[in-house]
Amino acid sequence: MNNTFGELIRMRRSYRQFLSTPVNDEVIKQVLEDAQYTPSNCNTQPWDVHIVSGNKKDELSKALVKANKEGKFNPDFDFDVNHYYGRYSDRQKEQGKAYYEALGVKRTDIEGRKRATERNLEFFNAPHAAFLFMPKFGDNVRVASDIGMYAQSFLLSLTSHGIGSIPQTLLGFHADIVRDNLGVPEEMKLLFGISFGYPDLESIANSVRMGRDSIEKNVSFHN
Ligand SMILES: Cc1cc2nc3c(=O)[nH]c(=O)nc-3n(C[C@H](O)[C@H](O)[C@H](O)COP(=O)(O)O)c2cc1C
Hints:
Layout lengths: L4 H7 L13 H11 L12 E6 H16 L16 H18 L6 H12 L6 E8 L5 H20 L3 E5 L6 H8 L5 E10 L26
Helix pairs in contact: 2-6
């Protein structure tokens, strides 16, 4: 592909329905090689990445869906959306509304909303998922920002290879299950996961395209 950076970053978006066609192992390796060039605090390179595909992915998905149905949650971090306020909360609600509306799920349809959430744990039918674990240091702010940077490198490299993706905090809601399933030691904490594969462009779940505010909302210039 021969896109400018501006085109590439605008091309990346979150997909919520994938084709089951797997991505070639060599391509996944190239994406991982690209993402390895991510900068990090003191060059600590703290990302601990687990790629899940095939039977392992299906097995893990079943375990996550079961835990979700039973209401068994054990996230490593506090992901409570109720902490959002003001414009952050407005944007979060707008995003949820756009997703439910695309699927035709009404506000009052509790079962429909549960099902829409559950689709996260089925990786939106993606053939692969990356789980991003991290060691804990202090208040975790530095290391979490490094993992966030890694994730964006990974997402953009996928985009440059014509592969769709979605980062998912929801994949971190059952951290013990993921650790047990993948043999990850207890000291590694799960920040989030990324489902990836070829997007199903016909799906209504992919009809949502979230916008962005103008830079004036986020940037101040000082002279
Ligand atoms: C760290 C992170 C976690 C996210 N978690 C979820 C998630 O659990 N489920 C989901 O459907 N979308 C999730 N998203 C996707 C966001 O909703 C999406 O990035 C945002 O609405 C902007 O849309 P875009 O990615 O299509 O540009 C997450 C995004 C990020 C960066």
